[in-house]
Design a protein that fits this description.
The chain is α+β, with helices and mostly antiparallel strands and 392 residues long. The longest helix has 34 residues.
């Protein structure tokens, strides 16, 4: 199966055309705690799920800058949907490290949706021909529409040190736990999944450490630079566009109402006449520019090193996390400024800015995206200390 590879501009055009559909279903998504099937179908038809699917299966193997900009565009329509799309790209990339015959099972369609996690919250035991897994994974965005899930577990074998492993399994063999009751990213359907005595064939299992380094068992993908990068910079760049897009969406919502909104208990007939508004808008716009700088620097670093198939230094890995944290922080600051400037009427549920603020708050609390966590990691490097995590 082959396909023409659309260029960056074409994929952005397709994403832009999806924005009205995403906006139309954003309230439904929140109320039902999942993404509407029509939205999933529309995104699939636009080819957005194919951005990290291998070319030979009809995918695009798109550049990382494209992922950032497409996610940012989708987030102007709905943060939950943009988050789900960007999360799908990450386990799709991870699945592309498995043996080629396993990929043949997984990528039966260029739009094969794969959910996943980076958290080793399950245990695995050796079994004849594979491993048996028991455990639960939370925050599994996309599980409700996916056919496969990438899982992480700790393999405990006799006379061996515990070892984290990664495996790809059919979602149908897992139990869905409907526990996604949250304040932000409510529409993403990021439920938990549960494995009970799940047998996983050995060829569906890889050492997590290898995939963290961008080392897999695929011969067909070995020549593609995007699959040789370390996992964490790839994951960071895949999802950071959502934060940038949410900040832009807040700016869109704020400026759309600016001319017609009075400032209550003042003589300002239009909010845009008030000097405080000028300061707030300029401050928010500058922070959005700063978020864009960090997001694009991260993406461009991944793309540059992938095109040259260069090894990553520890400094570059840590800076990737630092860029992600800085982009999230600046985007959230911009949203908060605009939300605070939107007045009391902005708390109504039909006003986009209140949802945008809740969504970016939820995103900023993600363990890998939290600004403080990433700033501390960067500070350790600057202090001459090594990272205190494997996730770099």
């Amino acid at each position: 199966m082959t396909t023409d590879r659309p260029e960056h501009a074409e994929l952005l055009r397709r994403a832009s055309e999806l924005v009205p559909t995403l906006q139309k279903f954003s309230t439904w998504n929140e109320e039902n705690r999942r993404i509407h099937d029509e939205v999933i179908a529309a995104i699939a038809a636009a080819g957005i799920f194919r951005l990290r699917t291998p070319l030979r299966y009809g995918g695009y193997e798109a550049g990382t800058r494209t992922l950032v900009d497409v996610a940012a565009t989708l987030a102007r329509g709905d943060g939950s949907t943009a988050w789900a799309a960007s999360v799908y790209w990450i386990p799709t990339w991870m699945a592309s490290h498995f043996p080629d015959h396993v990929q043949d099972e997984v990528f039966t369609s260029p739009d094969s949706l794969i959910c996943g996690t980076l958290s080793p919250s399950a245990m695995a035991a050796p079994a004849d021909g594979g491993v048996v897994v028991n455990g639960k994974w939370g925050f599994i965005t996309g599980a409700l529409h996916s056919r496969w899930q990438v899982i992480i577990a700790v393999l405990v074998a006799p006379d061996a040190e515990p070892m984290p492993i990664i495996a790809v399994v059919p979602t149908a063999e897992l139990h869905i736990v409907d526990d996604w009751h949250t304040a932000g990213l409510k529409g993403s359907g990021s439920v938990s999944t549960l494995a009970q005595d799940l047998f996983v064939p050995q060829d569906h299992v890889l050492p997590l450490g290898a995939v963290l380094q961008g080392q897999g068992a695929s011969h067909a993908n070995a020549a593609s630079g995007i699959y040789g990068a370390p996992l964490l910079p790839v994951a960071a760049a895949s999802s950071i566009g959502v934060a940038l897009g949410l900040a832009r969406a807040a700016l869109d919502a704020f400026t759309a109402q600016l001319a017609d909104r009075k400032i209550t208990y003042t003589d300002y007939a239009s909010q845009r006449e008030a000097p405080i508004t000028h300061l707030q808008l300029a401050d928010a716009a500058t922070r959005i520019d700063e978020a864009e700088f960090h997001a694009h620097r991260l993406a461009d670093t991944v793309d540059r090193k992938a095109s040259r198939q260069e090894q990553w230094t520890m400094r570059e890995r840590v800076l990737a996390r630092a860029d992600m944290g800085a982009a999230v922080e600046r985007a959230k600051e911009a949203v908060d400024i605009l939300a605070n400037a939107s007045g009391g009427s902005s708390i109504y549920l039909d006003r986009p800015v209140q949802r945008i603020q809740r969504d970016i708050q939820a995103l900023s609390l993600h363990a890998l995206m939290h600004p403080d966590t990433n700033r501390e990691l960067h500070g350790r490097l600057l202090s001459g200390l090594g990272p205190n995590t494997l996730y770099v």
